[in-house]
Amino acid sequence: EGGPGEPSCRSQRLMLQAGLLHPASPGCYYYMPPTVRALEKLVRVVDEEMQAVGGQKLNMPSLSPAELWRASGRWDGMGPELFRLADRHGKGYCLGPTHEEAATALVAAQSNLSYKQLPLRLYQVTRKFRDEPKPRFGLLRSREFYMKDMYSFDASKEAARQTYDLVCDAYRSLFHRLGLPFVRVRAATGNIGGTVSHEFQLPADVGEDRLAVCPGGHFAANVETLDGEQTSCPTCGEKLTQTRGIEVGHTFYLGTKYSSVSNAVFYSPENKPQLAEMGCYGLGITRILAASIEVLSTEDSIRWPSLIAPYQLCFIPPKRGSKEEEEGAALMERVYDDLTDALPHLAGDSVLDDRTQLTIGRRLKDARKLGYPYVVVAGKRVCEDRPVFEVWNQSTGEVLFLTREGVFELLSKAQVP
């Protein structure tokens, strides 16, 4: 853990050293501009996946009335993790850690909702709050964080389970696109409730959850859901291996737990009111940022999923006063300017490190620290008859020597959401 205020895991240490975060108070951080760029890119990818399964984006208030939470039983059930407050009139509220009550109240307020209008799949990406007793590991366990939460309303159990499977597939697609080594595990329903629950976990030593995984991929569960004597896979009989994981997503089939409390009903083909069958689905947006760095990075270099890196590439011109400066600096600026025309998808996604009073080595070290997927260096070979650039691929550690045309061909494969 280290002493008070000291970084306690790789992602926290790297993000603080690179100036991506600045601590404000325990469990709360300033997100610096590059971090916000990564956050916004991640949200764009999440939006694509949620809208591909019929998700409609909305915003719900962070302040949630106490009576909604008392009605569901979670005002007391959440315990001290719930931030509670009262307005000047003494009316109670909480800062929402999740929005099951609010989403259900919204749907309940829609009069004459027809079965023809279902399924409803409503989601938001907003700040959430949890009064963690011991915030730690930077963005992995904080008091204020960004989360994507979706709430689904279906006309039958069968339809609700179809929605559940559909959203789980969207989560799989998301993590595959990010290139993250995830595992979906059976999980407890906890204070949110419901009858079926799965977590999406990134295996990592710093993870707070213990997972039991079949080596053949037939079974995976959070250890807290297992019978104490279960040590082998129920499908193939192989011995389960244990690992630790960081929870980055969670899905719940809720049934009518919340719709029955708020009377969230729709009208059937026979024009009779029926309770909506619900599901809820969370993604820890800021936790995914930190967990990605945790599992992909080296001890001294950030490696982002290339899709959400704050910037795709960094150009490093020669040091001022070096023998390469005269030809190399002008050539590098031309390449940088031509990039927008040749590769418009990278416009605004590249950085020219013009701190030419610093050595190339120092700037290259800073570039590795920030995690640009590609770094293009105007080194000694830029003065050759056919100038050659050094291109560092941060995700593989590979160094390529390429002409201007080769650089453009390589960068044409860079992905930007």
UniProtKB/TrEMBL annotation:
It holds the Pfam family tRNA-synt_2b. One of its GO terms (biological process) is prolyl-tRNA aminoacylation. Keywords: Aminoacyl-tRNA synthetase, ATP-binding, Ligase, Mitochondrion, Nucleotide-binding, Protein biosynthesis, Transit peptide. It catalyses: tRNA(Pro) + L-proline + ATP = L-prolyl-tRNA(Pro) + AMP + diphosphate. It is found in: Mitochondrion matrix. Its main location: mitochondrion. It comes from the Eukaryota. It is an enzyme of class 6 (ligase). GO terms for cellular component: mitochondrial matrix. Residues 40-305 form the Aminoacyl-transfer RNA synthetases class-II family profile domain. InterPro entries: aa-tRNA-synt_IIb, aa-tRNA-synth_II, aa-tRNA-synth_II/BPL/LPL, Anticodon-bd, Anticodon-bd_dom_sf, Pro-tRNA-ligase_IIa, Pro-tRNA_synthetase, ProRS_core_prok. Transmembrane segments: none annotated. GO terms for molecular function: ATP binding; proline-tRNA ligase activity. Its EC number is 6.1.1.15. Mitochondrial aminoacyl-tRNA synthetase that catalyzes the specific attachment of the proline amino acid (aa) to the homologous transfer RNA (tRNA), further participating in protein synthesis. The reaction occurs in a two steps: proline is first activated by ATP to form Pro-AMP and then transferred to the acceptor end of tRNA(Pro). Belongs to the class-II aminoacyl-tRNA synthetase family. This is Probable proline--tRNA ligase, mitochondrial. It comes from Cochlearius cochlearius (Boat-billed heron).
